[in-house]
Fold these 2 entries.
Entry 1:
Amino acid sequence: MMNTIEVGDRKFGISITNERINERTKEIAAQINAEYKDKRPLFIGVLNGCFLFMADLLKETVIPCEVAFMKVSSYKGGLTSTGELKEIFGLPENLQDRHLVIVEDIVDTGLTLKYILEKVYLQQPASVRVCSLLFKPEAILSPIKELEYVGFEIPNEFVVGYGLDYDELGRNLKHIYRTIS
Ligand code: 5GP
């Protein structure tokens, strides 16, 4: 395994290996399997960053469930969140009385999630919880009570890999890397 890699014009060092991600993902899936056993949850993945986590998480679920994806346009390639949110695409329109699990790659300031939750609640779902692979507690602007499942809490630093990009590069990396230099 390479401990240091280059993505675009920056160097990154290993942060969380794929093996650790898989172990933690199995633990979260076990929790979800127990807690949503008879609820036929609808998992809604937030693209693009969630794609690997969503796939690995759902492969470990053993309960009847449905799967959907949505997209929020934001975060234009740089290293810091602009907080500028645009639009939601593809949010399912039949969420009333459903048990929802929103699957995210990372919660940073929480602004994206706050925006998504506002839209989701308009449809009066039965329950809403969020499952995020990564969470930066130091960056969150206001607490999000729905954030029930967190893979790893990480410091307030930029990470790439396992779905997360740096200027659209690096999503295919199997480990998660942190920015260095
Ligand atoms: P928030 O709205 O919580 O500040 O940011 C959420 C979005 O910003 C994430 O879905 C992700 O696209 C992007 N983001 C936040 N922190 C990072 C990071 O460390 N690395 C990458 N690649 N994207 C991040």
Entry 2:
Amino acid sequence: MNIAIIGSGGREHALAWKLQQSELTEKIFVLPGNGGTDNNVALDGSDTEALKAFCNKEDITLIVVGPEVPLANGIVNAFNDLPVLVFGPDKEAAQLEGSKIFSKKFMKKYDVATADFQTFTVKDDPSCLIKEMKGDLVIKFDGLAAGKGVYVCASEDEAFSAIEDIKVKYGENAEYLIESKLTGQELSSIGVTDGLNINCLLPSQDHKAAYDGDKGPNTGGMGAYCPAPLATEELLNIIDETIILPTLNGIEAEGFNYKGVIYFGIMLDDDGPKLLEYNVRFGDPETEVILPALKSDLLELILASFDGTLGETELEFYDEYFVDVVLTSGGYPVSYEKGKSIHGLDELKDTTLCFHAGTKKDANELLTSGGRVLNIVCKDKELKKAVDTCYLEIKKINFEKMNYRTDIAHKAIK
Ligand code: AMP
Ligand code: GLY
């Protein structure tokens, strides 16, 4: 079959790479893709009319959606009456990611373990709650905010300025929630669901902070690894019982049309695992490690979510650790330059994977075109060796002001 992948990051390059390995795949197009993907098409994934015409012309029968925005805009609904499968939740179910308040209400309604919360609009006066919680809380803007709508506060002043920031950025009618602050390590659990069953890929951890030691501003993700050693069988069973199964019950009870990916962002609090958020898509950079670790055919897995066989599908994984270090443009995520020439990729070992993100081809040159530029992925039976190989491989690559975190997976190695 012919497939269209929507998106332009490392996640989409990894999806194209993995889907290309299926015998069922004929041709893959990436919309708009990047300097590492083939068959790029300069088409906006949110423009459903153009997308329909393209699917018709190229005989596309499956669309795999990378980012959340087309899903939140209802791309699944738009193709309802057409013979094209769109892998993802419909517009209503996509609110699990698109609205923090919708998703927290869903979690509470279906008894999913999560932090307590209250909802407000910027016109309300939350001072009593903020004082009662002594400013030690988390504030989340209700809508999609490209990772910038969450404020983890340590004082009352920080809490009030977060609300001011929401008002300035999102207007007088903006809604937000205040929730209790949790502490602990974070774990990403990502699975394919058909709305009744779920098949989880390996548990992974990403690194959101820009600098070593988890310091600095939040980013799209600076690296990831899987399987996360802290995800013991016992812990995964607790996560199943307290988070994943109640979520599936909720999806079924609400009657959501959900054939796609569900991502559970979990905090391993002292008090047990708690769900921080749902994403309704593959995580980035988690995808760049969990797909290489998946031995099974991804396209068969995706198709099983449509044909009712997901419950009988068993997944196989490689018995190795996979580590992804993201190479960024110096200054990311604040401000950075683009258009730098990238060198050294042809010197990487055959066993090293390189998923492009912010790159573009220009004549015979490969240039940087974004903040996150490349994902270098290495594997080994031992996590530490996979990490060491990754950092050795990175030494072969250069572009002006190239930057990266030097401590990916270090917490798991100690
Ligand atoms: P979210 O988009 O809801 O996952 O939040 C983004 C990031 O903010 C998470 O990955 C956590 O690092 C942090 N965060 C979110 N909620 C909480 C919470 N209740 N307690 C502590 N940190 C949080
Ligand atoms: N890695 C976090 C995300 O994709 O949202």
